[in-house]
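Worked problem 6 (solution included).
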Amino acid sequence: MRGFEKYLALWVAACMGLGLLLSQVMPGLSEAINAWQIRGVSIPIGICLFLMMYPAMLNLQLAELRKLRTNPKPILVTILSNWLIAPLVAAGLASLFLRGNEQLMVAVILLGASPCTAMVLVWGKLADGNQEQNVVNTSLNTLTIMLFYVPVVSLLTGLQNIPIDRVLLAVSAGIFIGAPLLLGIVSKRILLQLKGEAWFNKVYRPIVGNVSTAALLLTLVTLFALNGDVLLRHFDQLLLVSVPLLLGFGIVVGFNLIVTRVLGFRYREAIITTIIGSSSHFEIAIASAIAMYGVGSYAALGTTMGLFWEVPIMLSLVYLGKLLRRRGFWHA
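Solution. The predicted structure is:
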């Protein structure tokens, strides 16, 4: 794993701090950025989010899905965690801790209902997990998020009696998942034919991966530059939303650790199942929050806090998994 990605948690925190600093020393900059929008959607943020999503869609490998038949149990556990346990835990904790703060409740639900399709490849490689399973699972998540994301978010917010713009939710899913997915499929096929698989995997994907990371960090700077005043005046709101986010991670990680042990998984399958089943697709969560509530909303900042906590938690899970392997927690 490259050193830059190894310390991604530090870069995330640094970009948040830089955004806050810019909001105070250069208030005109945030006003200029905020003015560049179409129908309430920030163009700079929209571009960054699209660039964050596109590289993840290159992970889709439909041919790999045929391998589900050989060892389906880890994949099925991950699907259960991603689309039942994590969303229900998120909705329950949001109701328990954030009642009356509807935008923060929606932020937690958006994060809980969006399984990861990109960063888990990094965490899985660092943890020495089964990367073949990782590719199969992320490919499957890329497809299932197109099918289940909007219905699950709509159902959970409806059960909480939270009104959301389901049309904007569906539009954001189409723009930030559907469009990058289509572009990923088309560009991958063309580039493989023109340049070959070796060039695609060793040259092109690393380049767009770097672009994705840069877009992620620029998005954080922009979000916090735009919302610095609101954040500093209401810092307690971000501390409040951190409670269900951290508890949610703890519950879902614990569930996956216990289930993979009870079912007799080996380490390399168990750690991938735990990592994927416990992570969230913060890119689409942030995009959806911005589409429905705007760049300067508590929902946008709430989903951003999901990213803030997920990076160090996933890194910690990598090292926890290795520790549990040495102590014989899973089958040899």
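Discussion: The mean pLDDT is 86.
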